[in-house]
Amino acid sequence: MDTTGNVSGKKINWLHLLLFVAAVVLMGSIAGVANAGNITTWYAELEKPSFNPPNSLFGPVWTVLYALMGLGLYLIWNAPKSEKRKRALQVFVVQFVLNFCWSFIFFYFHLIGWAAVEIVLLLGMIIWMIVSFKAVSKWAAYLQFPYLLWVSFATLLNISIWWLNS
């Protein structure tokens, strides 16, 4: 993105950008809202590692991460049509489905071990997404690094919770 508001030579469509960000934030929030009841009940009773962050941190962090995903997705969608763009969009969808499913596996079904397996797959898909995005837009890829870091931390947290509660 340059200082004139152009991305890859294309003018930014601010309405489309807002819609992409809002759609990803909304879709990502559905899993959180659907599982909120288990956070104050079942999850509260689990033994957690000392580095477990307060529950109040998760909502704001995920909102920012979903907004960055939406911005990255917009940059990819706005890029010229190509096989690389098509692949990046496909990888995004797969990682997003894994992201969505993890909350249900962990919080709704209480399958901590399976959630650990799933989040490792998600982590691999995030890396693949970043590589796929970079082939189309380096900025779209760079925007995903906070997501990669957070899910890396969440993977450690998930595995630790599984270990402490098995």
TrEMBL record:
Pfam families in the cross-refs: TspO_MBR
Transmembrane segments: 12-37, 57-77, 89-109, 115-133, 145-164
GO cellular component, one term: membrane
InterPro entries recorded: TspO/MBR-related_sf (IPR038330), TspO_MBR (IPR004307)
Membrane topology: Multi-pass membrane protein
Statement: the UniProt record of this protein carries the keyword Glycosyltransferase: no
Record keyword Membrane present: yes
Family of this protein: Belongs to the TspO/BZRP family.
Protein name per Swiss-Prot or TrEMBL: Tryptophan-rich sensory protein
